[in-house]
Amino acid sequence: MVYLTRKIEFSASHVYHNPTLSPRENKRIFGKCNNPHGHGHNYTLEVTVAGEPDPVTGMVLDLKELKEILEHEIMQRMDHRHLNKEVPELKGQIPTCENIARVIWNLLDPKITQGKLHRVRLYENSDLFADCYRNGAGARA
Amino acid sequence: MKNETLHIELGRRYRFSASHRLHNSKLNDEENSRIYGKCNNPFGHGHNYTVEIRLSGKINRDTGMISNLADLDKFVNEKVIEPFDHRSLNEEVPEFRNAVPTTEILCIEIFRRLKTFPHAKLEAVRVVETSNNSFEYAGN
Hints:
The complex is a heterodimer. Chain A has four helices and five strands, in the order βαβαβααββ. Chain A has helices at 23-30, 63-78, 83-86, 97-108; strands spanning 2-14, 39-51, 81-82, 116-125, 128-134. A five-stranded mixed β-sheet of chain A has the order 3-1-2-4-5. In chain A, a hairpin with a 2-residue loop joins strand 4 (116-125) and strand 5 (128-134). The model of chain A has no long low-confidence stretch (mean pLDDT 95). By secondary structure, chain B is of the alpha+beta class. In chain B, 29% of the residues lie in helices and 31% in strands. Chain B has helices at 29-36, 69-84, 89-92, 103-114; strands at residues 6-20, 45-56, 87-88, 121-130, 133-137. Chain A binds chain B through residues 16, 18, 20-21, 29-31, 93-99, 101-102, 105-106, 121, 126-140, and chain B through 2-14, 54, 59, 62-66, 68-70, 123-124, 138.
C-alpha cells in the first residue's frame, strides 16, 4: 500500500456562534472566535489517498485528477468565502477544524474512485489541525 | 449517520525550550562518551522542542469541538510547558533524575502526563527535537 498526499491552501472567514446559547455563553466558550463580524484564516488541507500503484501508470491515482477534484470540490466552494454564510454543507454547524475536516471528507470520499481516501488533515494555522479517518483506519492503519 | 463511520482527531502544537545532557550514571565516562557523543558534554545543551498532541472524541454538537481549546491549553501548560520550559530536564524534572532524557523518553513522559486529560482521549504525542529529528508515542 502506498499513501499519496496532496496539499492545497485556501483562505476563508468564519465565526463561532451557537444561536441556542446566550451571548454570554457564546463569549465564554468561543472567546475571540465569537466576534460578530467574523475573522479569517489561511487553511492548509492535506489529502492522503491510499492504494496500490497501477501496474501500467505506476500511479495510485493521477495527481491531475486529484487536483481537479480538489479545485472543484474544495477551492471553488471554500476559497475566499465566508464558511458560515456561503458553504451550505456547514449550515447549522460551528465551522471548527473538526467540522470542516468532516465536511471535506464527505465531499471528497465519493469522488475518489482510484485508491481510497485515507486521511483528511486540515490546518487552521500551524498549531491547530484536525484529522479525519475512516473509522477503524487510524493513523497507523 | 454517515459520520458515525468517521474517526476525527484534534491536533495541537506547543513549544518549549530546555536543556538536557545524555548521560547514564551506570556506565563509565568512556562508554557515555562513545554512546552519546556530543550530547554527553558535561554542561549540557538545549533544544527548541515542539510537542504535537492528537486527541480523539465525539464532536460536541453545541461547540463543534472535540475539546475546548482553552481547557486543553491550560492542561498542557500546567502539565508540560510550565514544568519544562526554560529548565534543565535533568536537574529540574524529577522523572529524569534516574532516566536519560532522550527525546524518546521525553515523548513517553509527556504522554504519561497528558493521558489523564479528562475531555478527550489522547491518541499520540509527537516531539520534534530539531527539524531533522522527531519522535512519536501512542501509549503502546
